[in-house]
Amino acid sequence: MWKLALLLLISGLPATQQAPPPPGPQGPEDVAVVKFSWRKERVPGWENRQFGTSGETYEAMRARVDNERRIQAARNSGNKAELGRRESAAKMLEDANAPKGSKDAGPPRDGYRYKVTVSNAGTKTVKLIDWDYVFLDPNTRQEVARRQFTSEEKVRPGKDRELEVFILSPPFLTVNAAASRTGEAPFVEQVILMRVEYSDGTIWQRP
Q: pTM of the full predicted structure?
């Protein structure tokens, strides 16, 4: 019963939940978060059974292959901190996108698309960004949930770019029922840039 109530609460939330980043640096001086959001949407191809032999969707398979390549690169570099993050992010995406039940897709289901737009005010081209989508309790400001993503996208100097990731798991597992009834956002949200890799090989990483 509580699972049904949770699904009803989540389905009743607005399509996007957004709040300005809190005071303080959220990334390097030359790369800034402009806006961010998430929304629930139907899993692409679910009705047409567009799944691989293991039951994973095309988007999930592509994300898995990209993560495996990044993990191997981190192993080769000898950077244990980066390797740990890559493995943690890969495990999170694997759990979030794990097909439930048999290979028969069953009834249509929903997934969740997370987006962030970043602006590059520097002189170097960005080629990869690690970013975390964080949910905070509005009263205590304590962290409730965190989604870790890696986007391998070029952001040229003076340009903005929207990064997005699609996974099956919801942003959070619990919601404030009182806030949902009043229409208030159940959590304060923010996106934090954790690591930025530039095309010249230099790297900025959050301490």
A: 0.61
Pick left, alpha or beta for residue 101 (phi over 0 → left; psi -120 to 50 → alpha; otherwise beta): left
**How close are the terminal C-alpha atoms of the chain, in Å?**
43
Burial tier of 55 (Cβ tally within 10 Å: 0-12, 13-18, 19+): middle
Cβ count near 89 (within 10 Å): 21
Helix (H) or strand (E) holding 50: none
Q: State which residues form the domain around 82.
A: 45-108
Say yes or no: 169 and 136 in one domain. yes
Q: Are 54 and 142 found together in one domain?
A: no
Q: What is the CATH number of the domain that holds 198?
A: 2.60.40
Q: Using CB atoms within 10 A of its CB, is residue 3 exposed (0-12), middle (13-18) or buried (19+)? A: exposed
Overall number of domains in the chain = 2
Lowest-confidence pick of 88-92, 98-102, 110-114? 98-102
